[in-house]
Amino acid sequence: RNEKMDLDVFGMTCAACSTRIEKVLNKMDGMVSATVNLATESASVEFNSAVLSADKIISKIQDLGYDAKEKV
Ligand code: 9UX
Fold first, then answer.
1. Atom 2 (ligand 1): residue with closest C-alpha?
2. Quick one: which atom of ligand 1 is closest to the CA of 13?
3. What is the pLDDT of residues 13-25, one digit of tens each?
4. Which residues contact 6 (CB under 8 A, 6 or more apart)?
């Protein structure tokens, strides 16, 4: 089943940051689509919840040196 999630992303300071995160997220197994917006410091993702999870996506963003939190 595909699930959608919006995240606040912390620590992005230039457009290359958002592009970098977006590329890495879109390569993850189970990712359907990921878009990262620098101006709003947020990300929207759609993923196959049988393969991926919110925790894995947030961990990946943290691995890149940023932080993220699911919007509630
Ligand atoms: Mo821009 Mo982001 O030089 O880590 S890529 S600040």
1. 17
2. 6
3. 999 999 999 999 9
4. 42, 43, 44, 45, 70, 71
